[in-house]
Hints:
This protein is mostly helical. The chain has five helices and no strands.
Amino acid sequence: ELHRGMVAGGMPPPFVRSTESAYASGGWRGVYVSWAESAAQQKFPRFLQAVNHAQAGHGARAIQLLSQAVERREPMTMWIAVHPAFVPLHDDAAFRALARRAGVASVAAH
C-alpha cells in the first residue's frame, strides 16, 4: 500500500525506493528519519523538518528546528500548537515557551 500510494501521489522512483527501504529496516520511525534527512538535504522549511523529526521521536531536534522556523518567521509555525506531530511535545517546557514565542496563546498539555 505504501508503494502504491507514493506512486499514485507522483513521488519520484528513487524517493519511493528509499522510503520502502527505510520502512523495511525501521518501520515508520525509519521512514520519518529518512524523510528528515532528505528534507534537510533539500533545504525544506524548518517547520517541515521538525515534523519529521518529531514523528521519528527526536523531540529535542524538532524543538531546535521549530525555534529556527519561528526566528525565520515561517508561515507554517502558526500550526505549532495543533499539528499532530507535536502533541508528544506539549508537556515539554521548551516547546511551550517556543509556542508562546510564536504567538500561540496556549498549548494543551497532555
